[in-house]
Write a structure and sequence with these properties.
Helices cover 27% and strands 24% of the residues. It has 270 residues and is an alpha/beta fold. It is globular and about 55 Å long.
Length: 270
Protein backbone atom coordinates (compact mmCIF):
# COMPACT_ATOMS: atom_id res chain seq x y z
CA UNK A 1 0.00 0.00 0.00
CA UNK A 2 1.29 3.45 -0.85
CA UNK A 3 -0.19 6.91 -0.47
CA UNK A 4 -0.40 8.95 -3.68
CA UNK A 5 -2.40 11.89 -2.30
CA UNK A 6 -2.11 14.06 -0.32
CA UNK A 7 1.57 14.31 -1.11
CA UNK A 8 3.70 14.68 2.01
CA UNK A 9 7.38 14.60 2.83
CA UNK A 10 7.03 10.89 3.58
CA UNK A 11 5.27 10.03 0.31
CA UNK A 12 7.88 11.93 -1.67
CA UNK A 13 10.72 10.11 0.14
CA UNK A 14 10.63 6.43 -0.84
CA UNK A 15 12.88 5.64 2.08
CA UNK A 16 10.48 7.28 4.53
CA UNK A 17 7.64 5.86 6.53
CA UNK A 18 3.94 6.70 6.53
CA UNK A 19 0.49 5.60 7.67
CA UNK A 20 1.16 5.44 11.42
CA UNK A 21 4.68 4.02 11.03
CA UNK A 22 3.99 1.67 8.10
CA UNK A 23 6.92 1.24 5.66
CA UNK A 24 6.11 2.37 2.15
CA UNK A 25 4.86 -0.50 0.01
CA UNK A 26 4.01 -2.81 2.93
CA UNK A 27 0.60 -4.03 4.06
CA UNK A 28 -0.78 -1.35 6.33
CA UNK A 29 -1.98 -2.34 9.77
CA UNK A 30 -5.67 -1.96 10.59
CA UNK A 31 -4.72 0.86 12.95
CA UNK A 32 -2.97 2.71 10.13
CA UNK A 33 -5.97 2.22 7.86
CA UNK A 34 -8.25 3.49 10.63
CA UNK A 35 -6.14 6.64 10.91
CA UNK A 36 -6.27 7.12 7.13
CA UNK A 37 -10.07 6.77 7.06
CA UNK A 38 -10.91 8.58 10.30
CA UNK A 39 -14.16 10.54 10.24
CA UNK A 40 -13.62 14.31 10.17
CA UNK A 41 -14.54 16.26 13.30
CA UNK A 42 -17.93 17.98 13.10
CA UNK A 43 -18.35 21.00 15.34
CA UNK A 44 -22.06 21.19 14.46
CA UNK A 45 -22.72 17.67 15.81
CA UNK A 46 -24.44 16.70 12.57
CA UNK A 47 -24.07 13.30 10.96
CA UNK A 48 -21.38 12.55 8.36
CA UNK A 49 -22.60 10.04 5.77
CA UNK A 50 -19.98 8.18 3.77
CA UNK A 51 -20.49 5.51 1.14
CA UNK A 52 -18.19 2.59 0.37
CA UNK A 53 -18.37 1.12 -3.13
CA UNK A 54 -16.19 -0.69 -5.67
CA UNK A 55 -16.26 -0.19 -9.44
CA UNK A 56 -14.42 -1.64 -12.41
CA UNK A 57 -12.65 0.54 -14.95
CA UNK A 58 -15.74 0.35 -17.19
CA UNK A 59 -18.10 1.37 -14.41
CA UNK A 60 -19.54 -1.96 -13.21
CA UNK A 61 -20.36 -2.22 -9.52
CA UNK A 62 -20.89 -5.99 -9.72
CA UNK A 63 -20.08 -9.07 -11.78
CA UNK A 64 -22.64 -11.86 -11.91
CA UNK A 65 -24.65 -9.92 -9.34
CA UNK A 66 -21.90 -9.74 -6.73
CA UNK A 67 -19.12 -7.30 -5.89
CA UNK A 68 -16.68 -9.97 -4.66
CA UNK A 69 -15.28 -10.89 -8.14
CA UNK A 70 -14.11 -7.30 -8.70
CA UNK A 71 -12.77 -6.81 -5.16
CA UNK A 72 -9.47 -7.76 -3.50
CA UNK A 73 -8.14 -8.77 -0.09
CA UNK A 74 -7.03 -5.19 0.59
CA UNK A 75 -10.40 -3.85 -0.53
CA UNK A 76 -12.01 -6.13 2.05
CA UNK A 77 -9.60 -4.83 4.71
CA UNK A 78 -10.71 -1.29 3.86
CA UNK A 79 -14.33 -2.49 3.96
CA UNK A 80 -13.79 -3.91 7.45
CA UNK A 81 -11.99 -0.77 8.61
CA UNK A 82 -14.83 1.49 7.50
CA UNK A 83 -17.25 -0.70 9.42
CA UNK A 84 -14.94 -0.61 12.42
CA UNK A 85 -15.18 3.19 12.49
CA UNK A 86 -18.92 3.61 11.91
CA UNK A 87 -21.71 4.11 14.43
CA UNK A 88 -24.27 2.74 11.98
CA UNK A 89 -24.13 0.88 8.66
CA UNK A 90 -27.09 1.92 6.46
CA UNK A 91 -28.31 -0.57 3.86
CA UNK A 92 -31.29 -1.08 1.60
CA UNK A 93 -33.80 -3.88 2.04
CA UNK A 94 -32.86 -5.47 -1.29
CA UNK A 95 -29.23 -5.70 -0.21
CA UNK A 96 -30.29 -7.35 3.06
CA UNK A 97 -32.39 -9.89 1.18
CA UNK A 98 -29.78 -10.67 -1.47
CA UNK A 99 -26.72 -10.87 0.73
CA UNK A 100 -28.20 -12.31 3.92
CA UNK A 101 -26.98 -9.49 6.14
CA UNK A 102 -26.01 -10.48 9.65
CA UNK A 103 -25.33 -8.26 12.68
CA UNK A 104 -21.96 -6.52 12.60
CA UNK A 105 -19.44 -8.21 14.86
CA UNK A 106 -17.18 -6.67 17.46
CA UNK A 107 -13.51 -6.71 16.46
CA UNK A 108 -10.67 -6.52 18.94
CA UNK A 109 -8.61 -4.39 16.53
CA UNK A 110 -11.11 -1.51 16.91
CA UNK A 111 -12.22 -2.09 20.51
CA UNK A 112 -10.05 0.58 22.18
CA UNK A 113 -10.77 3.13 19.45
CA UNK A 114 -14.53 2.55 19.69
CA UNK A 115 -14.52 2.67 23.49
CA UNK A 116 -12.61 5.96 23.46
CA UNK A 117 -15.19 7.42 21.06
CA UNK A 118 -18.12 6.21 23.21
CA UNK A 119 -19.32 3.78 20.53
CA UNK A 120 -20.97 0.39 20.95
CA UNK A 121 -18.60 -2.59 20.52
CA UNK A 122 -19.99 -3.08 16.99
CA UNK A 123 -21.87 -0.78 14.63
CA UNK A 124 -25.63 -0.93 14.38
CA UNK A 125 -27.28 -1.88 11.10
CA UNK A 126 -30.05 0.40 9.79
CA UNK A 127 -32.26 -1.09 7.06
CA UNK A 128 -34.20 1.30 4.85
CA UNK A 129 -37.41 -0.25 3.53
CA UNK A 130 -40.73 1.23 2.41
CA UNK A 131 -42.63 -2.08 2.29
CA UNK A 132 -40.90 -3.78 5.27
CA UNK A 133 -40.83 -6.98 3.21
CA UNK A 134 -38.13 -8.45 5.44
CA UNK A 135 -37.62 -11.67 7.38
CA UNK A 136 -37.66 -10.43 10.97
CA UNK A 137 -36.66 -13.84 12.31
CA UNK A 138 -33.12 -13.37 10.96
CA UNK A 139 -30.26 -12.87 13.45
CA UNK A 140 -29.85 -9.33 12.09
CA UNK A 141 -33.03 -8.42 13.95
CA UNK A 142 -33.07 -10.91 16.82
CA UNK A 143 -29.40 -11.21 17.85
CA UNK A 144 -27.57 -7.91 17.26
CA UNK A 145 -24.73 -6.67 19.49
CA UNK A 146 -25.98 -3.13 18.89
CA UNK A 147 -29.55 -2.05 18.08
CA UNK A 148 -30.85 -2.81 14.60
CA UNK A 149 -32.91 0.01 13.11
CA UNK A 150 -35.62 -0.29 10.50
CA UNK A 151 -36.29 3.01 8.72
CA UNK A 152 -39.56 3.35 6.84
CA UNK A 153 -42.35 5.78 5.97
CA UNK A 154 -45.44 6.54 8.01
CA UNK A 155 -47.57 4.69 5.45
CA UNK A 156 -45.80 1.35 5.90
CA UNK A 157 -48.14 -1.58 6.68
CA UNK A 158 -49.00 -1.47 10.38
CA UNK A 159 -48.64 -5.25 10.76
CA UNK A 160 -45.13 -5.12 9.33
CA UNK A 161 -44.17 -2.30 11.70
CA UNK A 162 -45.38 -4.43 14.60
CA UNK A 163 -43.48 -7.44 13.27
CA UNK A 164 -40.31 -5.37 13.14
CA UNK A 165 -40.79 -4.12 16.67
CA UNK A 166 -41.66 -7.61 17.87
CA UNK A 167 -38.29 -8.87 16.60
CA UNK A 168 -36.48 -6.35 18.78
CA UNK A 169 -35.68 -3.84 16.02
CA UNK A 170 -36.23 -0.13 16.59
CA UNK A 171 -38.51 1.39 13.94
CA UNK A 172 -37.81 4.94 12.79
CA UNK A 173 -40.42 6.76 10.70
CA UNK A 174 -38.64 9.04 8.26
CA UNK A 175 -41.06 9.81 5.46
CA UNK A 176 -44.65 10.26 4.46
CA UNK A 177 -46.72 7.56 2.82
CA UNK A 178 -44.73 4.70 1.35
CA UNK A 179 -41.48 6.58 0.84
CA UNK A 180 -38.43 7.25 2.99
CA UNK A 181 -36.90 10.73 2.93
CA UNK A 182 -33.09 10.31 2.91
CA UNK A 183 -32.58 13.59 4.76
CA UNK A 184 -35.01 12.59 7.51
CA UNK A 185 -33.45 9.12 7.73
CA UNK A 186 -30.01 10.61 8.37
CA UNK A 187 -31.47 13.11 10.85
CA UNK A 188 -33.31 10.34 12.75
CA UNK A 189 -30.06 8.44 13.27
CA UNK A 190 -28.23 11.63 14.27
CA UNK A 191 -30.95 12.34 16.85
CA UNK A 192 -30.01 9.05 18.50
CA UNK A 193 -26.39 10.09 18.73
CA UNK A 194 -25.22 8.26 15.59
CA UNK A 195 -23.11 10.71 13.60
CA UNK A 196 -20.59 8.41 11.89
CA UNK A 197 -22.75 6.84 9.20
CA UNK A 198 -21.67 4.39 6.49
CA UNK A 199 -23.74 3.11 3.60
CA UNK A 200 -22.67 0.02 1.66
CA UNK A 201 -25.44 0.06 -0.93
CA UNK A 202 -27.12 -0.83 -2.94
CA UNK A 203 -26.92 1.40 -5.98
CA UNK A 204 -30.57 2.45 -5.83
CA UNK A 205 -30.29 3.66 -2.25
CA UNK A 206 -26.98 5.40 -2.89
CA UNK A 207 -28.59 7.18 -5.83
CA UNK A 208 -31.32 8.43 -3.50
CA UNK A 209 -28.74 9.77 -1.03
CA UNK A 210 -26.92 11.52 -3.88
CA UNK A 211 -30.13 13.00 -5.29
CA UNK A 212 -31.15 14.26 -1.83
CA UNK A 213 -27.76 15.95 -1.32
CA UNK A 214 -27.02 14.15 1.96
CA UNK A 215 -23.92 12.17 0.93
CA UNK A 216 -20.82 13.75 2.47
CA UNK A 217 -18.11 11.34 1.33
CA UNK A 218 -17.53 8.55 -1.17
CA UNK A 219 -14.89 5.90 -0.55
CA UNK A 220 -14.59 4.32 -3.98
CA UNK A 221 -12.28 1.45 -4.83
CA UNK A 222 -11.38 1.51 -8.53
CA UNK A 223 -10.73 -2.08 -9.55
CA UNK A 224 -8.25 -2.62 -12.43
CA UNK A 225 -10.70 -4.90 -14.24
CA UNK A 226 -13.00 -4.74 -17.25
CA UNK A 227 -16.27 -6.67 -17.34
CA UNK A 228 -18.46 -5.22 -20.13
CA UNK A 229 -22.05 -6.43 -19.84
CA UNK A 230 -24.90 -4.48 -18.31
CA UNK A 231 -24.03 -4.53 -14.60
CA UNK A 232 -25.29 -1.72 -12.40
CA UNK A 233 -23.16 1.32 -11.68
CA UNK A 234 -22.54 2.35 -8.08
CA UNK A 235 -25.53 4.74 -7.99
CA UNK A 236 -28.82 4.59 -9.85
CA UNK A 237 -32.15 6.35 -9.96
CA UNK A 238 -32.95 9.86 -11.13
CA UNK A 239 -30.12 12.04 -12.36
CA UNK A 240 -29.20 15.33 -10.73
CA UNK A 241 -30.13 18.42 -12.74
CA UNK A 242 -26.58 19.70 -12.29
CA UNK A 243 -23.71 17.31 -11.42
CA UNK A 244 -22.37 17.89 -7.91
CA UNK A 245 -18.62 18.40 -7.59
CA UNK A 246 -16.71 16.48 -4.92
CA UNK A 247 -13.05 17.00 -4.04
CA UNK A 248 -10.31 14.40 -3.67
CA UNK A 249 -9.42 13.83 -0.01
CA UNK A 250 -6.96 10.95 -0.32
CA UNK A 251 -5.69 8.35 -2.76
CA UNK A 252 -4.02 5.03 -1.90
CA UNK A 253 -2.78 2.35 -4.30
CA UNK A 254 -1.91 -1.32 -4.09
CA UNK A 255 -1.53 -3.90 -6.85
CA UNK A 256 -3.26 -1.63 -9.37
CA UNK A 257 -6.32 -1.01 -7.16
CA UNK A 258 -6.98 2.65 -6.32
CA UNK A 259 -8.57 3.46 -2.96
CA UNK A 260 -10.09 6.91 -3.27
CA UNK A 261 -11.84 9.22 -0.84
CA UNK A 262 -13.91 12.08 -2.21
CA UNK A 263 -15.71 14.61 0.00
CA UNK A 264 -18.41 17.16 -0.62
CA UNK A 265 -16.79 20.29 -1.98
CA UNK A 266 -16.63 23.06 0.62
CA UNK A 267 -17.02 26.63 -0.58
CA UNK A 268 -14.89 29.43 0.86
CA UNK A 269 -17.94 31.09 2.37
CA UNK A 270 -18.65 28.05 4.56
Amino acid sequence: MRRLFPVTYETADHAGRQGGGEPLGSEWSLDALADAYAYPPRADHQAWLRANMVSTLDGAAQHDGRSQPISSDTDMRVFGTLRGLADVVVVGAQTVRQEGYRPARAREAFAARRAAAGQDPAPSIAVISASLDLDFSLPLFTEPLAPTYVITGSGAPAERIEAARGSGAEVLLAGEGATVDPDRAVAALADRGHRRLLTEGGPRMLGQFVAAGVLDELCLTVSPMLTAGDAQRIAGGSALTVPERFELLSLLEEDGFLYTRYGRRRHSAE
